[in-house]
Inverse folding.
């Protein structure tokens, strides 16, 4: 499990071993909590997650369809110009990796761009765009500025 935003790792220790404190394990000192803490499960049926702002204990749930598709930036530009209304962030997620390549994730990939759930590929192969999209969705929901 990873808590993104500051790339903190959540340490899971077996009961038979003493578990070090996170600050001792990574030798870090933190003056303020991270802006976003998120935990994701890249399942074959859906991308599921839990996220919270800062040190808040007010967790929110995240659910996105498993589809991912890589498209050129021109396809995203065309979509943005012709879309009607405003969808929820989890239903309209896409991320740009470089000037030419974008990944459309979740419901938008499923409904508009015929993405596939990638059941024949390894989960980690699609984790990068799914993680970026999930962080964007959480940031939108929490109204984070950066």
């Amino acid at each position: 499990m990873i808590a993104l935003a500051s790339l903190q790792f959540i340490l899971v220790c077996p009961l038979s071993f003493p578990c070090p404190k996170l600050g001792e394990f990574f030798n870090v000192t933190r003056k303020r909590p991270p802006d976003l803490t998120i935990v994701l499960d890249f399942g074959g049926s859906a991308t599921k997650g839990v996220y919270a702002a800062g040190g808040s204990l007010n967790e929110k749930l995240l659910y996105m369809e498993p589809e991912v598709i890589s498209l050129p930036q021109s396809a995203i530009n065309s979509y943005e110009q012709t879309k009607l209304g405003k969808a929820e962030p989890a239903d309209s997620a896409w991320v740009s990796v470089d000037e030419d390549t974008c990944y459309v994730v979740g419901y938008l990939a499923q409904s508009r761009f015929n993405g596939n759930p990638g059941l024949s590929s390894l989960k980690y192969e699609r984790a990068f765009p799914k993680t970026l999209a999930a962080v964007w969705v959480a940031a939108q929901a929490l109204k984070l500025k950066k």
Summary: Strands lie at 2-3, 8-9, 36-42, 47-53, 60-64, 68-72, 94-96, 101-105. The radius of gyration is 17 Å.
